[in-house]
Amino acid sequence: MSERAARALSIAAFVALIAVAAWTTAVHLRDRVRMPDAAELADAAEVIRSGFRQGDFIRHQPLWFTDARIGLDGLPFLMSRRLDEYDRHRFSRMWLLSSRSHDREAAADRVWMSNIEEVFSSRRLRVEVGDVVQTAPVYWDGFTDFGAATVYRQNAAGSSRVCDRVIDGTTHCERYNEWIHVGPAVREVDDEPRHCIVANAPPDGDSWRIVWDDVELHDTMRFRAGNAFRAQRSDRGAPVHFSVHFGDEEVFSREWPIDELGFPEFVIDTSSRRGTRTSLEFRVHSRDHFDRFFCFRPQIVGPSRFER
User: Fold this and answer.
1) Cα(12)–Cα(22) distance, rounded to whole angstroms?
2) Rounded distance, CA 111 to CA 187, Å?
3) 151-167 burial, b for 16+ CB within 10 Å, e for fewer?
4) Cα dihedral: 118, 122, 123, 129 (round 10)
5) Which tens digit of pLDDT belongs to each residue from 47-106?
6) Distance in angstroms (rounded) separating the CA atoms of residues 236 and 163
7) Spatial contact of 225 and 190, defined as CB atoms under 8 Å apart
8) How far is CA 275 from CA 217, 222, 244, 271, 280, in A?
């Protein structure tokens, strides 16, 4: 390449960089102007706090506008890009705090709501509250009922010991371990923050056994399971094996490769066992536990109220 051509290319690249910077600045300023200001947000937060009650949660749109959470510390938010059906039953009412410039995103969330009331309105901001529309009845949720589970750590010879040291809601075997424990948490799975039961594979070839002793079956058992993003970013460790047992019967078994993405749902038809009570057991094992961050979310549900 000649010196003249190289100089022309450098100038073109510089001009392109300036154009991109100008466009980015313009977009930022436009968003800043159309988003609610601090005074609007403070007034909205006061309305939400004064009317908030047990069983409520908050959703704000757009999700990237984190200023919407100012003044609402300690209250529950759902932050996934799409509201998760597995969380619907946990709440009775939803507060929707939305910028008027992003009504399309807010409209997608309103599908979850009925008896909607607008309780705050300003030039750039709207706050609505409504009942959460319930679909399939959830009879049991391992995430919310984790406190009733018994956690065992089983070695390769089949000998198990109970793990009962609970720290900040998670269960450890004997001493605290920042990485190796079992319990409900929020983890980034399938590029979404998910409420799930963390069960990072234990070392020494051991397995976790998470057991609920007496659970009544209904029409369906459904669950999601998968690698957390922290696992997917690492090439250490071996695949994770996950299985589900009704009593002594294994009803599901699958292996997750170390780089598998997603949080897929699996469904087991239990309608023929409706009304029977059984122990539910979930096992997690990996031949090499390094960076095998794994979580799952099990539920027992009935048919959708909109299917009958």
Assistant:
1) 15
2) 25
3) bbbbeeeeeeeebeeee
4) -30
5) 999 999 999 999 999 999 999 999 999 999 999 999 999 999 999 999 999 999 999 999
6) 26
7) no
8) 6, 17, 19, 9, 14
Helix count (H) and strand count (E) of the chain? 4, 18
Which residue type, as a one-letter code, is found at position 271?
Answer: S
**Helical residues (DSSP H) of the chain, grouped into ranges:** 3-34, 38-51, 103-110, 229-232
288 and 236 Cβ atoms separated by less than 8 Å: yes
Tell me the C-alpha distance between 57 and 66, whole Å.
16
Return the structure tokens found at 61: 């749109």
Q: Is the peptide bond before 298 cis (omega within 30 degrees of 0)?
A: no
- From 193-202, 203-212, 288-297, the region with the lowest mean pLDDT: 288-297
Distance CA 262, CA 264 (A): 6
Among 169, 277, 178, which Cα is nearest to 230's? 178
Q: What's the whole-model pTM score?
A: 0.84
| Residue indicated by tokens 């529309």 | 133
Structure tokens at 49: 């706090």
Structure tokens at 95: 């507060």
Output the CA angle 80-38-32, nearest 5 degrees.
Answer: 70
